Structure formats: structure tokens, C-alpha cells
């Protein structure tokens, strides 16, 4: 969208404003022509409360970090939420009540929590995706194609690596990759996933999809899917070197949600990759 001086900016609140992604989002909003930071949330007790959300950039956004959900969300038309599952659900309850549209980047939701999100999507528009980067979503399409063509005779393993502060495993992206592959092969990930191996495991079971997790240092996010056949193997890899791609993808999601009243969407909808 091309914003002109007469086009009102999209009013966005950021949850977890002092977090790794929160700060990337504040920076992306500050740098955008069509969005404005209208509110910023952090947990009660956070030392950042009362400070300007863009202070870490040496800028003044006008949005002071606060912990009162109603106060913050009543100043916004959109919430971008990269926090923790329980926090996201608390925020969603207020967003559904106030008609605020929500971009959710948080990962690690249980099936019951995902069902709660789907229920809130009947009241407001929600975009939920474990990875907002364009590259990862294109990788998911490549995996769909590879999984169909390599339906038999190839063992599938998904390896992901992230920074030492990440609290959920495997990553939401790795799980999504497994889901896309399983679905492309007419199956369900829950019937095929192997999340742990230790000790005398016995030989690899056919048709399983294995997951391996690496945690260390400041790795932003690497994902490799291995299709291991007899006499050859194919590896499809995506590596993130900056969180800016997640923030830019989130702003694309906001612009997409501006055209929706309610319903649940993902990045395939935002990027027109559904077909
Ligand atoms: N979809 C995507 O593209 C991406 C998704 N993610 C996901 O986003 C989430 C956040 O990642 P990251 O920014 O690295 O994490 P951080 O821990 O750096 O930031 C999380 C922020 O949320 C706050 N927070 C923690 N618990 C709650 C709660 N219960 N309610 C409200 N706020 C809370 C934290 O506050 P405090 O510091 O005070 O605890 C912090 O400000 C993770 O689930 C991660 O997997 C990350 C990158 C990309
Ligand atoms: O926690 C992170 O950092 C990331 N989390 C997301 C995930 O769990 O897939 C996306 C990205 O890999 C970074």
C-alpha cells in the first residue's frame, strides 16, 4: 500500500515490547510509512513500564510501555503478539472484546490453546503463523512439492537450530514443516512424528518423521529438512540471519488483516501462496 499524507496510518499495539521480537517490531513500525505504534505492552513488574517503546532506538514514538491490557488495546486497531502462549490467549480475549485484529507470532501452543484461538477468530480477524518470513513460507511450498514427489523410499528428518534463550522445542516452524510434509503425503504428523531418540532405539521405523533440536548462542533460526534415500539425499535448508524478516512479514500480515473482518488466516493467505 502507498501511504499518502491523507491516508490514516494503521494503529498497531505491540505485546512483549521489550522482547527480542517486540523491539524488532517497534523498529519496523517506526520505519514504516503506513503504520504507527499506538500502544506497547509488557508484563507487570517489567522495568520498561512507563518508558517510551522506541527509547532503545533513541527515538520517541509517543507510546509508553504499559501493562494494562484494556488501556493499551483500546488505542489500537491491531495487536502484534510475539510473547508466550498463555499471554497471547489473555491478550486475545481483550482483542476479541474490543474488535482489535491480531497477528500472532508466538509458538508452542497446545492443541487446546489452538482451539481457543480458532474460537476467537469468529469474533475478530487473526493471522497465526509460526514463521513470518517470506523465505520460510516459500520453503514450505518447496517442501510440499518435494514431499509429494518423494512419497516412498525417502526417510524424512527435520533439524532446527536456535539461540540459547528459546523456550519451546521443536520450533513452531519445524512442526509446521512436518505438518506440511505429512499432509502432502496424505497423512497426519501426529501419526508419524518422532521427537526423541536415546539409547537402544532399534532401527529407524519406516514412514516416521524425525525431529532434532539444537540450542546455542545467538543462532536466529535454521531449519533443514532431509529426504534420505538409497544412493542420494536431498536437503532443503532455510537460514535466518536477522529477525527483521519476521517483523516485516508481521507488517504485511497487518496490512492483510486490514481487509478482513474476522476469521483465521496464516502467512500463505498473506503471501498468496495458498494455491
Ligand atoms: N512467528 C515468527 O515469525 C516468530 C516467532 N517467534 C516466537 O515469538 C515468541 C517470542 O520470542 P522472543 O521475542 O524471542 O522472546 P522474548 O522472551 O525475547 O520476548 C517475549 C516478550 O513477551 C513477554 N512475555 C513473557 N511472558 C508473557 C506473558 N505471559 N504475557 C505477556 N507477555 C509475556 C516478555 O516479557 P519478560 O521479558 O518480562 O518476560 C517479553 O517482553 C516465541 O514464542 C518465539 O518462538 C519468534 C521469532 C519469529
Ligand atoms: O524463537 C525464535 O527465535 C523463533 N521462533 C519461531 C519458531 O519457533 O519457529 C520462528 C523462528 O524460527 C524464530
TrEMBL record:
- Listed GO molecular functions? 4-hydroxy-tetrahydrodipicolinate reductase; NAD binding; NADP binding; oxidoreductase activity, acting on CH or CH2 groups, NAD or NADP as acceptor
Q: Where in the cell is it found?
A: Cytoplasm
Instruction: Give UniProt keywords alphabetically.
Output: Amino-acid biosynthesis, Cytoplasm, Diaminopimelate biosynthesis, Lysine biosynthesis, NAD, NADP, Oxidoreductase
HAMAP family named among the record's database cross-references: DapB
Q: What is this protein called?
A: 4-hydroxy-tetrahydrodipicolinate reductase
- Give the binding site residues for NAD(+): 16-21, 105-107, 129-132
Q: Where does the Dihydrodipicolinate reductase C-terminal domain lie?
A: 135-271
According to its UniProt record, in which pathway does this protein act?
A: Amino-acid biosynthesis; L-lysine biosynthesis via DAP pathway; (S)-tetrahydrodipicolinate from L-aspartate: step 4/4
Amino acid at each position: 500500500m502507498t501511504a499518502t499524507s491523507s491516508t490514516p496510518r494503521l494503529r498497531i499495539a505491540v505485546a512483549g515490547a521489550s522482547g527480542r521480537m517486540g523491539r524488532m517490531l517497534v523498529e519496523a513500525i517506526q520505519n514504516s510509512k503506513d503504520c504507527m505504534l499506538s500502544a506497547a505492552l509488557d508484563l507487570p513488574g517489567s522495568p520498561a513500564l512507563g518508558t517510551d517503546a522506541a527509547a532503545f532506538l533513541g527515538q520517541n514514538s509517543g507510546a509508553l510501555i504499559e501493562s494494562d491490557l484494556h488501556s493499551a488495546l483500546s488505542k489500537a486497531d491491531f495487536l502484534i503478539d510475539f510473547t508466550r502462549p498463555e499471554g497471547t490467549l489473555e491478550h486475545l480475549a481483550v482483542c476479541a472484546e474490543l474488535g482489535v485484529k491480531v497477528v500472532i507470532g508466538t509458538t508452542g501452543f497446545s492443541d487446546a490453546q489452538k482451539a481457543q484461538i480458532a474460537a476467537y477468530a469468529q469474533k475478530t480477524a487473526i493471522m497465526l503463523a509460526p514463521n513470518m518470513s517470506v523465505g520460510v513460507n516459500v520453503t514450505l511450498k518447496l517442501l510440499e512439492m518435494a514431499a509429494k514427489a518423494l512419497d516412498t523410499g525417502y526417510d524424512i528428518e527435520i533439524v532446527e537450530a536456535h539461540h540459547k534463550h528459546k523456550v519451546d522445542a521443536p520450533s513452531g516452524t519445524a512442526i509446521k514443516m512436518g505438518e506440511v510434509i505429512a499432509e502432502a503425503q496424505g497423512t497426519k504428523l501426529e501419526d508419524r512424528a518422532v521427537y526423541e531418540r536415546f539409547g537402544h532405539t532399534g532401527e529407524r521405523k519406516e514412514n516416521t518423521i524425525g525431529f532434532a533440536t539444537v540450542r546455542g548462542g545467538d543462532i536466529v533460526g535454521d531449519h533443514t529438512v532431509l529426504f534420505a534415500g538409497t544412493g542420494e539425499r536431498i536437503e532443503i535448508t532455510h537460514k535466518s540471519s536477522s529477525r527483521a524478516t519476521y517483523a516485516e512479514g508481521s507488517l504485511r500480515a497487518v496490512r492483510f488483516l486490514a481487509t478482513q473482518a474476522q476469521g483465521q488466516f496464516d502467512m500463505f493467505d498473506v503471501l498468496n501462496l495458498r494455491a
